[in-house]
């Protein structure tokens, strides 16, 4: 039995560009394409089955390659999501996005969306013109997920390659594979396939309506530095001289930091720069006072957040006026 349109949930689809809207002159090519050139109407035309899942309200918010995502666009997108979710006739939001910075955008929304209604991001690893393009099925699954009652209250989700991930934990793990997104430490929340949605676990950390963060007028300058063999303090000193408000260190192993960087970071803290230790490894957690003593440095442990998501949380924290290391550590332990 086919549902009538009036009984279908109403989902807002916000398009931002990316590979899912990419186009190449040769259907056999999955690289060398131009991202973000296909409009949202054509994305919808490629998935006629969507009419059986939801009523779609579509908007083109941006048409970019997500490698060029900006903090200004983050704030514009988050504000539009919040505005749409306040409308009684909108039941959820789906965002099409490039894969390169999807996890960062998703986490920013996870902390700033003020609704329990579903918000789902999706993307593609192959442009829309490619043989076996993965975008249409990912879009269908994302809308199916956003229209499902079980997605409410789970924070911002990512639907990709039939899996459901939490925005907090998901990360891109491949440069080419269609299963590029994974949650390394904890695994997917569930799956969506052929119209069925199945959650195997829920989201534990605070988010969305439970988050204390509001959208600021602007986000402060927070940069990422990496520890590696033979590292020097040059980049840290340059960032501090440029007036950054925070630094995230992608440390080795358990967030360990080269001795030359430790001294530079300690000097940065004395000048009022907030410092967070994360890891470049890709999974696991950074223990407080582990390989590099946080108490001595005045730094904060990112826990299980990777450097890019730690940067998002640090920017929102500083924008909210929270810069004390003890208070920051509590936030990183909470979110």
Automatic annotation (TrEMBL):
CDD domains: L-asparaginase_II. It comes from the Bacteria. Gene3D superfamilies: 3.40.50.40, L-asparaginase, N-terminal domain. GO terms for biological process: asparagine metabolic process. Residues 222-332 form the Asparaginase/glutaminase C-terminal domain. Keywords: Hydrolase. Substrate binds at residues 66, 99-100. Belongs to the asparaginase 1 family. PANTHER family: 60 KDA LYSOPHOSPHOLIPASE, L-ASPARAGINASE. NCBIfam families: asnASE_II (TIGR00520). This is L-asparaginase. It comes from Caballeronia glathei.
